[in-house]
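User: Structure tokens for both sequences below?

Assistant:
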Amino acid sequence: MSFQEILLGAPAWVWVLLAVLVSRGMKAMKGSTAPLSKLGIVPAVFVGWGLLHLLSDPATGWDTALMWAAGGVLGAGLGVTLAKRSGMTVDRVRRTITLPGSAVPLVLILLTFAMKFWIGFEMATTPYIGVDSTFIVLNGLVSGAVAGIFAGRFLIYWLALRPAPEPFLERS
């Protein structure tokens, strides 16, 4: 099967999804300010989507679930690191986070899309994929890692918006 046939054989929704994701990645290249509630949407979607896949796909088993969890932990570590290094500013009064423009989200989006596209192609063209086959487990790992990256970033944003500690005053 040629590369052109692979691309033309993908469902139309895949390309619509890619266009939406690339537009989000391009938007992230410009600095912006957002409330915590808005920053929580993407992590919730990726975690929910991953869990739904684990619970609803008959080809997933314990190996896939464990790889999703391991990917989530590793991804969260990466997400925490990326958020801490992002140069964000916090406005506790307005409860917003200002993020400077960065190409990191676009790169993550494109890498994730490429990996998921390849895994999806392999799973669609392999005649029989049993429970916890390599591709199913790899899909769980990638899904967990991506969910973890977004969740780790959100964790840092949430922690940054916690109220400042009260100064400790000693009684005389």
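Moving on to the next sequence.
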Amino acid sequence: MVDQISVELEPALSLRYGRPKGQERLKRAADALTANGFAVIRASNAAKAYEAVLGLIPDGSEVHHGASRTLELTGIAEALERSGRFKPLRPRIWAMDRQTQSDEIRRLSAAPDVMLGSVHAVTETGSLMAASMSGSQLGPTCLVRGGSFSSSALRRSWQT
């Protein structure tokens, strides 16, 4: 879990959510995630998270990612699209005509080799919580061919 990314929170939110959780609580959450079939990788800072995430994705993979402030702040989103190691779907999809290529957009979005995105909460009981306005990223996150990664808790679903 990445627990050291600097983001400016509104003062009211900082009092409640801006403080790091104790190591005991993080360990409980990590143990519960592991018991639920997730491979948990904790990174102490954004640079280490960057290395960990990119190191898990096989070269040449079709990679898609949902909107994620964490992926942006760590530089992961940019690396996915500009490193040359992967086949990024996001720029390809954005360049397509929504009127004439909607079926192809839907197919590409639904089944990338690797899908990355953030979850909105990690519980101490080993659950990941995600909310979505349209639900468009939820299917690929659960059902991708190659693997599914969350920037909060990484899971290599092809190994389970």
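User: Anything stand out in the second?

Assistant: The CA atoms of residues 32 and 125 lie 5 Å apart.
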